[in-house]
């Protein structure tokens, strides 16, 4: 019996040791990444922005953002109308609730799509981000 209890204690100690080793690995990885970003990124941040120095890239980014925002708004209108049409012919209250949830999630997605560009432009210029200095992501 003493041998069984010693074996179980040894296996418990092994699992405790393994868990402490496993918990140290992510902490070391996070610390290493944090130190590298502090020291390795500073010279790159001091350089001029490659996006702003390119000829047509800022206008292409602005156009892409305006296009995706426009498509998102059109997509919202299509989804909203399709859900409303299906909802008129649906008799099951559970399906109607599902369609209303779908309409709400489509509305939330469109609002996020419309708000993110101006938010990035304003917040980025306040924080001094280089991309926000030369690219205007306001879709209108």
Task: Characterise the protein shown here.
The protein has 140 residues and is mainly alpha-helical. The protein is built from five helices and no strands. Helix 3 (57-88) packs antiparallel against helix 4 (93-127). The protein is flat, with a radius of gyration of 27 Å. The termini are far apart. The relative contact order is 0.09. Residues 42-47 have low confidence and may be disordered.
> Which H/E pattern describes the elements?
HHHHH
**End-to-end gap:** 79 Å
Q: Per DSSP, what share of the residues sits in E-state strands of 2 or more residues?
A: under 5%
Helix content: over 70%
Global structural class: mainly alpha
Total beta strand runs: 0
Overall shape: it is flat
Q: Count the helices. How many?
A: 5
Q: Radius of gyration over alpha carbons?
A: 27 Å
Poorly predicted runs are: 42-47
The largest sheet is: none
Average residue-wise pLDDT: 75
Core attributes:
140 residues; mainly alpha; 5 helices; 86% helix
Give a brief rundown of this model.
The chain has helices at 2-46, 50-53, 57-88, 93-127, 130-134. The protein has 140 residues and is mostly helical.
């Amino acid at each position: 019996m003493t041998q069984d209890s010693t074996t179980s204690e040894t296996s418990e100690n092994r699992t405790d040791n393994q868990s402490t080793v496993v918990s140290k690995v992510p902490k070391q990885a996070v610390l290493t990444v944090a130190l590298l970003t502090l020291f390795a990124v500073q010279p790159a941040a001091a350089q001029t922005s490659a996006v702003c120095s390119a000829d047509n890239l800022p206008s292409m980014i602005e156009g892409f953002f305006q296009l995706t925002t426009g498509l998102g708004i059109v997509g919202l209108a299509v989804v909203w109308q399709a859900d409303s049409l299906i909802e008129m012919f649906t008799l099951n209250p559970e399906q109607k609730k599902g369609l209303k949830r779908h309409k709400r999630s489509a509305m939330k997605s469109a609002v996020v799509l419309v708000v993110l560009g101006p938010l990035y432009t304003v917040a980025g210029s306040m924080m001094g981000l280089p991309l926000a200095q030369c690219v205007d992501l306001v879709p209108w």
